[in-house]
Amino acid sequence: MKKATTLLLILVMILSLFTGCAGEPAADAEKVIKIGVFEPQTGENGGGGFQEVLGIRYANTVYPTVDINGETYKVELVEVDNKSDKTEGVTAAQSLVSAGVSAVIGSYGSGVSIAAGPIFADAQIPAVAPSATNPQVTEGNEYYFRVCFLDPFQGTVMANYAIKNGAKTAAVITQLGDDYSSGLGSFFVTAFNELGGAGSVIAEEQFQTNQTDFKAILTNIKAKNPDVIFAPSSITTAPLLIKQARELGITVPIMGGDTWENATIIENAGADAEGIVLSTFFDEAEPATDEAASFITGFKEYLKANNQGEIIPAVSALGYDAYITVLEAVKAANSTEGPAIKDALKGVSVVGVTGSITFNETGDANKDMAFIKIVENGQFKFLETVTVE
């Protein structure tokens, strides 16, 4: 009997312990806001996408929290790999929606951004693209924004540069089915023909995705003898195209867009990369803002710690800027809800690494300046800034 009584008392004590715990307020759990990182880390654009991711990750170390209604929230990055593919991009976008992110940053590569746009819009989750330059990314989608300039501007910048440097005729090479390559090539053609006169673009060639032999295309172009070649393409394709052009004896300047500012192009094209010209968003030698100066110092240390070298890719700077722009909108919205953040984005004003960032009515950044660089002695060398009215 004593044993039964003792067991009963122990049971009562245990139950009272649990009851007491339930009645006491639990310690506040850490508040978290999830930001999706929608980027290619594999596939044709994996190299550039990873550089963009590095800028976003670094920004998260600099600004790991955000205040909402007087409470501090930890910013948790939810990364997905869209694999440089439109179909995979849709799946990756849907996984971010399922993960409950409040906003999204990405993507490197306009094609996957365009494909994922309706997913984010339907879920009412705002997305901010660091470097997706095709106009269709934000066109008709109030939930998509970007912090970079657009391809119509970039195409005009490169056409201006070519003509100013004596080119009277041009050839254009683009990738069939790639929104970035074909879009930028088309804008260059329009601008070059307007500036130099109708018919100034004397050759237009296209290649297939994953194509590695460009000799037939380049032979056709060589026969027409243009003064310059404009070939916006991925960092995977560019070295092959450049090397094969030089092997065929083509000596005219070869130009590309912002994707070409990548050390792997110089590494893979070797001496044949000398003299290539490109447009880009940022130059670390000329920091435009205090944020830029701080970023350059800190990000170089971050790159070194992660065995990534010391050259700062422009897309890393844009990834950083997209992150701080999203955080500014979250603070302004005082909310983790997508529609409120989207509305706040329309009115944000951020002084970032790549300059001041505000958005127009279509969600595009109000930017009017590009940096022109050339490869000289195995390094990217700043030539000039270009503004187009």
In a nutshell, what does this entry contain?
With 389 residues, this protein is an alpha/beta fold.
| CATH superfamily descriptor of the largest domain | Response regulator
Tell me the β content. 15-25%
Number of separate strands: 15
**Widest beta sheet: strand line-up:** 8-7-9-10-11-14-15
Order of helices and strands: HEHEEHEHEEHEHEHEHEHEHHHEEEE
Give the helix/strand class. alpha/beta
Individual helix count? 12
Whole-number mean pLDDT = 92
Largest sheet: 7 strands, mixed
Helix amount, in percent?
Answer: 40-55%
CATH topology of the largest domain: Rossmann fold
CATH classification, class level of the largest domain: Alpha Beta
> Based on the structure given, which CATH architecture of the largest domain is correct?
3-Layer(aba) Sandwich
Q: Which blocks of ≥5 consecutive residues have pLDDT under 50?
A: 1-27
Please give the radius of gyration in angstroms: 25 Å
What gross morphology would you assign?
globular
**Termini gap:** 97 Å
Counting structural domains, the number is 2
Task: Describe what this molecule looks like in 3D.
- The protein has 389 residues and is an alpha/beta fold.
- The protein contains 12 helices and 15 strands.
- The strands form 3 sheets. Strands 8-7-9-10-11-14-15 form a 7-stranded mixed β-sheet, with helices on both faces.
- The longest helix is centred in the N-terminal third of the chain and has 22 residues.
- The protein starts with a helix and ends with a strand.
- The N terminus is likely disordered.
